[in-house]
Amino acid sequence: MQANEAESDLINALKRGESPAFRKVYVLYFGMIRYLIVQNKGREEDAKDIFQEALVVLYEQLSTGKLILTCELKTWLYAVCRNKWLRQLEKSKRELKFTDFEPIENVSVPQEEKSDEVHVMLRKSLEQLGVQCRKMLLLFYYFRKSMEEIAVDMSYTNADNAKAQKYKCLQKLKMIYKNPSAS
Predict the structure, then answer these.
(1) Using CA atoms, how far apart are residues 89 and 92, in angstroms rounded to an integer?
(2) Which residue, 105, 100, 150, 154, is CA-closest to 127?
(3) Could you tell me if 132 and 166 are in contact, meaning their C-beta atoms sit under 8 angstroms apart?
């Protein structure tokens, strides 16, 4: 009964928009949300954003009287954050498909002060790389993904393993570029 009273007091304070109540919710529940998101291809920054969005929804629904909790606040926050994160993952899947990098002709190399011949050589060298190496280098250099994101996308155990693989792929690309007939 005491837990319900404490939660009722917390919810009433949230309805009134009291900052200490929001801090308490953050302290009590953010760790759970961070774990959820980091374990599901997210970063701590993603968790912070999702949690903040959920708190805004919570405040709006409490202050307008639209929210009637039929479960614990913890459960409600978890469900809202999980749904928001799943929608964000689905949206990012639609925006960037990384599954097939075979048609390299669709990737444009940034135009710097290099001759067309260098671009042609680079494109041919990329085409000679294996699919995994090509994907790794494109994710890092073209799509500007972090090593942590690449580790998740490519199923490496951690960012250090992904970084080591990127180094090997880059060395292979340099070797192909310097000696295209050797491959």
Answers:
(1) 5
(2) 105
(3) no
In the chain, the amino acid numbered 174 is K
**Phi and psi torsions of 54, nearest 5°:** -65, -40
**Amino acid occupying residue 113:** E
- pLDDT (average), residues 23-27: 92
Q: Kindly list the distances between the CA atom of residue 150 and the CA atoms of 44, 103, 145, 179, in Å, as whole numbers in the listed order.
A: 16, 20, 6, 28
SS (H, E, C) 29-96: HHHHHHHHHHCCCCCHHHHHHHHHHHHHHHHHHHHHCCCCCCCCHHHHHHHHHHHHHHHHHHHHHHHC
Q: What is the pLDDT of residues 83-109, one digit of tens each?
A: 999 888 887 765 544 444 444 444 444
Q: For the whole prediction, is pTM greater than 0.70?
A: no
98-109 residues labelled b (16+ CB within 10 A) or e (exposed): eeebeeeeeeee
pLDDT of residue 7: 86
**Residue 94: its pLDDT value, please?**
57
Q: How high does pLDDT run on average in the chain?
A: 81
